[in-house]
Amino acid sequence: MIDLVFETKRLLVRRWRDSDLPYLMAVYGDEDAMKWVGDGKPLNETACAEWLNVTNRNYTIYGYGMFAVELKYESGVIGFCGIVHPGGQEEAECKYAYLRRFWGQGIASEALVGLIGYGVTRHSIPFMIATTAPENIASHRVLVNAGMVKGEFRNNEDGSYTQVFEYTAPSQGSQN
User: Fold this and answer.
1) pLDDT above 60 (res 176)
2) Is residue 137 part of a domain?
C-alpha cells in the first residue's frame, strides 16, 4: 500500500483517497455518531468532498492530516484518525471517528497510540491535544488509554465548554 502512513497490530492507516468519499459520508453522515463532533450535525456529501480537499492541502502544508483506518484482514475503511490544526490553531490536535459498529473494540485507542507515535517520530511534534465534549466519557477513556492526560476546560464562543486532553512527548535529553 503506497499511501500507508503507519500500521498497528490490527490496523492499516493511510492517506485519504478521492474514492474514500462514500466512507467519509458513512462515518460523518451518521447523526448519532456526529453528536460528539463539531457542531453535532452530520456532514453532507458536499461537506465531505470539501474535507477531502482540505486534507489534501494539509498533506502539502504539514505533511500530515486526516487518515483512513482499515482493518488489516478485511477490506474497507472503518473510520478515520489524524492530526489537524482546526481553525489554524497552533497546537496539533488528534481527531478520530469510526463507524459505530467498531466502537468499543479498542480500535480508537490502538489507532491513536500509533497516530501519536507517528506525529512524534515522523514530524517531531512534541505536544498534541485532543478535545471532547465534557460528557463524552467513552472518548475520555480512549484518550487516556492512548497516553493522553486530562487538561483544562476550554471556553467556546457559544458559552459551552470543551474538555482538553494533552500529550507531551518524553524529553530526548542528551546522553553522557
Assistant:
1) no
2) no
